[in-house]
């Protein structure tokens, strides 16, 4: 099946007074039509940069240094303004962490939804769209201002706006992080149902490994601006092949047994100023050997998934480091 999205060795940096921070370090990823893919990683791993790059919705200080990003046939960083506008309007839908930031507080929601739909939709069409996002009493919601809605209802309005034009790709950046825990699963279930209905691909950017495990077909684990492990969720989570995926799982709330404490990942993620010439995870890795500090690992196929680790076979077999360990 040909991919809907293809990132090929994508390098994106941000100009800062300290130098150019490398947010994506030759990131490679494919997203298939109709799949739900979760991109997970700690804060700073590059998830948002990759997600927003799909619509070239990056801040002015962002620079695409090299590589290519193809979204539904559009080369995002080479496209002209009209092509980009059409891509964002007709083929992409975004759902952000905080729905209140996505909605205009001064405008009734019905008018905002109408704008997202385009043309001049009548009340019946607006109400029907809100009902598809499982909003109870859509007529009342249409006439409300955003501050009159609960967080969960506001997020459903944002979801309705995101699917208004039948996008090919829905990108949801921590879509449930700002919501009450009791409704997170229901909002995720709505997103998935709409993905099924619209046949769009759904990309969930998240720190929450447990949440994505329940909802994603495939998982892509990011570290230091690279996708370090990608494969079927069930396979990756049952037996990770990258030490970072293992550490993320150990740190995921809910994986602990009664009486057992969660293990935070020791150390902190890198802030890269140039290309990383070694394994970016090496300083924090319990499997690291000398090679990891000297040679940049390339992506390869191990145990039915793609992984960026010199010692993925050992990780799969759970063999810790040997005498050749990095000092
Ligand atoms: N506008 C910016 N200016 C400078 N550096 C930035 C900017 N945005 C992101 N970065 C840096 O780029 C790297 C990747 O950030 P990004 O936000 O893509 O990661 P993330 O995984 O989405 O993190 P989070 O979960 O916190 O959003 C980080 O080192 C971050 O500090």
Topology:
Elements: E1 5-16, E2 19-31, E3 36-40, H1 47-53, E4 62-71, E5 74-75, H2 81-91, E6 92-95, H3 99-102, H4 109-117, H5 123-132, H6 138-142, H7 151-163, E7 169-173, H8 181-198, E8 201-206, H9 209-215, E9 218-223, E10 226-232, H10 233-238, H11 243-251, H12 290-294, E11 300-302, E12 305-307, H13 312-317
Parallel strand pairs: 3-8, 3-9, 6-7, 7-8
Antiparallel strand pairs: 1-2, 1-4, 4-5, 9-10, 10-12, 11-12
Bound molecules: adenosine-5'-triphosphate (ATP).
Can you give keywords for this protein?
13 helices; 327 residues; 23% strand; disordered C terminus; binds adenosine-5'-triphosphate; globular; single chain; Rossmann fold
Structure description:
By secondary structure, this protein is α/β, with parallel strands linked by helices. The chain has a single domain (5-255, 273-317), classed as Rossmann fold (3-Layer(aba) Sandwich). It is built from 13 helices and twelve strands. The chain has helices at 47-53, 81-91, 99-102, 109-117, 123-132, 138-142, 151-163, 181-198, 209-215, 233-238, 243-251, 290-294, 312-317; strands spanning 5-16, 19-31, 36-40, 62-71, 74-75, 92-95, 169-173, 201-206, 218-223, 226-232, 300-302, 305-307. The strands form two sheets. Strands 6-7-8-3-9-10-12-11 form an eight-stranded mixed beta sheet, sandwiched between helices. Strands 2-1-4-5 form a four-stranded antiparallel beta sheet, with helices on one face. A hairpin with a 2-residue loop joins strand 9 (218-223) and strand 10. The radius of gyration is 21 Å and the shape is globular. Bound molecules: adenosine-5'-triphosphate (ATP). Adenosine-5'-triphosphate binds next to strand 1, strand 2 and helix 1. Pfam families: ABC_tran, oligo_HPY. It is found in: Cell inner membrane. Residues 5-249 form the ABC transporter domain.
